[in-house]
Amino acid sequence: MGTVRDAGVVVTGAGGGIGAALARRFAAEGARVVVNDLDVTKAEAVAEEIGAIAVPGDASGVVPAARKALGGRVDIYCANAGVAPAGGPEAEEDLWEAAWDVNVMAHVRAARELLPEWLDRGSGRFVATVSAAGLLTMLGSAPYSVSKHAALAFAEWLSLTYRHCGVDVHAICPQGVRTDMLRGTGAAGELVLVPTAIEPAQVADALFEGMAAGRFLILPHPEVADYYAARATDPDRWLRGMNHLQRRLEEVPGQGVGR
C-alpha cells in the first residue's frame, strides 16, 4: 500500500463512530483529512480535534467541496455514512428511500465524481463501510439489510472493473461496533450484535491491515468469514438458524413481526 502521508482523504459520516475513528487514524498517519457529516457541530468537533478540515453536508454531494478543500485532489474516499431504519415491507416508503439513497446511491454518486480523476492518473482508493449485514443480514431491518447487500455488490463491481487501472476498493464488513447506530438497533442489536461488539478504533485498525495486505474484504470480526461460507454452502441450514434467532427476538415484548 505504501504510506498515506499527505494523501487527500475524505470520510463521510465522520462526526462519530466508525467514521470518526477512520478520520482519526488517517490523520494520525499523516493524511490530509476532510471530515464530512450532516451534523455540522460534530463534523467541526472531530476536524478540530485531529487537525482536519470539516466539510459538513449530504454525503451524496460532498466530493466537489472536499476536493477543493484538499487543494484539488482526493486520493482516498471512505463512503462511511449510513442509516439503519427498522422494519420490513411495512416500513414507510421514505425510510426505504433513505436507506437506498445514503447506503447505496451516495457511493454511486461519489464514484461517478471520482473515477475520471483516478483513471486519468492511474490511482485511487474507494473504501465502503458495508457491514456484515451486506454479507449476511440483519434481524429487524430489511431496508438496512437490502441496501447493504447492494452496497457490497457495488463495491465488488468497482473492484473487478477498475483494479487493473490502479483503483483499489475495500469493503469493511464488521458486526456490532459500539456506536450510536448500534445503540439504536434495540432488541435485535442486543441479541445479535452487542455480545461481540468492538470499538470503532478496531475497525480502523482492520482497515489499515487490509489495505496493507491488498484485501478487498475487511472483516474486523474474522468469524464473519465462516458465517458467510456457511450461508453460501448450505443456505437452508443458515436460514433455519437465522429464523431461530428471529423467533427468539419475537419473544421480546414489542418485537413481533410487523404486519
From TrEMBL:
Source species: Streptomyces eurocidicus (Streptoverticillium eurocidicus)
CDD domains: SDR_c (cd05233)
Entry keywords, A to Z: Oxidoreductase
Highest rank taxon of the organism: Bacteria
A GO term, aspect molecular function: oxidoreductase activity
InterPro entries per the UniProt record, alphabetical: NAD(P)-bd_dom_sf, Sc_DH/Rdtase_CS, SDR_fam
Protein known as: Dehydrogenase
Family, similarity comment: Belongs to the short-chain dehydrogenases/reductases (SDR) family.
